[in-house]
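Re: the request from the purification team.
They wanted to know what the chain is likely to look like in 3D before they choose a buffer screen. I agreed to run a prediction and write the result into the notebook, where they can find it.
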Amino acid sequence: MKFVVIGIGVGGAKLSYQKETLGNAGYTASKMADNGVESVRIFDDKGKEYSLDDGWEAFRRSKP
């Protein structure tokens, strides 16, 4: 399953990043939010939305 992380950056620029796992999407979403990107959201390839907490928890579980 693939995931997409979207948000609104500086000047209203739309940002979108494709990731292979929910953990990778969670990490990217967290970093985007930390850097001031607004309205950060995570979706899977079927359109289901995941919270930033879900993504971050998946990232934490994926670490050795």
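For the purification team: The chain has a mean pLDDT of 95.
Please add any questions underneath this entry.
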